[in-house]
Amino acid sequence: MGAPLPETKYDRVLERASHGEPVVTAVAHPCEASVLEAVVEAARRKMMVPILVGPAAKIRAVAAEAHLDIGGLKIVDVPHSHGAAAKAVALVRSGEAQILMKGSLHTDELMAEVVARETGLRTERRISHVFIMDVPTYHKPLIVTDAAINIFPTLEDKVHIVQNAIDLAHALGNARPKVALLSAVETVTPKIPSTVEAGALCKMAERGQITGGVLDGPLAFDNAISKEAAETKGIKSEVAGDPDILLVPDLEAGNMLAKQLTFLLKADAAGIVLGARVPIVLTSRADSLRTKLASCAVAVILARFRAAGVASQED
What we know:
Helices cover 42% and strands 17% of the residues. It has an eleven-stranded mixed β-sheet with strand order 3-2-1-4-11-10-5-6-9-7-8, sandwiched between helices. The longest helix is centred in the C-terminal third of the chain and has 26 residues, at 289-314. It folds into two domains: 1-122, Rossmann fold (3-Layer(aba) Sandwich), CATH 3.40.50; 123-275, Isopropylmalate Dehydrogenase (3-Layer(aba) Sandwich). By secondary structure, it is α/β, with parallel strands linked by helices. A hairpin with a 7-residue loop joins strand 5 and strand 6.
């Protein structure tokens, strides 16, 4: 399909996702060319076995106009986007699909079906979003959470958000991810609640309430990203200058941070939703093919990682 994708920090993820059993993926309302292009490419790379859920005639028309071959893909004919979201979630609940992917419908429309109490995909975890970012000026992939779902998360919510991100890092091969808990300053200050919550999260990690990662905070963004900035402030930290995960104080801060990295530093931002029964791929029409494929690849790796864990527990 056209020219090869340029080399990025996503290469290892894409390569890993292309080796192994393809994962069945329910794609809700894939009625836009860029979504179908990513799905077709993911299938070609043997990452996914897509099930296209939506109005069949419209899906075929979009594919024909974009010169995309979807002849080998299963289509579940559903008349509109709301029905497509409900049916795609139902396919996951029944075990027919192990990944859910957003097509050309609004995120709120899909997530309303995901969080429905009786028919959705809730677990005991808080649902949260992560961006897995390829920032050209940073030395490794960077996970930013939560910049898309939880608007003003509580301390309890942040426990789940952090644990979701740590678990994802484990699936991606990082056994001990470093987590920077961001705020405006690096000291616990009662007038800034996010600093108090950061201090509490660090203590909770010490007591085993959050596991699998190294937490430090509060850290201002410069201290989190730059070892030199941290040393200038007298901060001694294993995390400062080398975080794998950035926990933002709230959605507003996270959304601005992710978009600044994207539009000022030309970062790519693959995105998935965690905390549900299965990984959920969220892409934007503005995403490049490379970014959409990276989102799919991360979800595939996580789905396989979870399946392997379940299998090992059953042995």
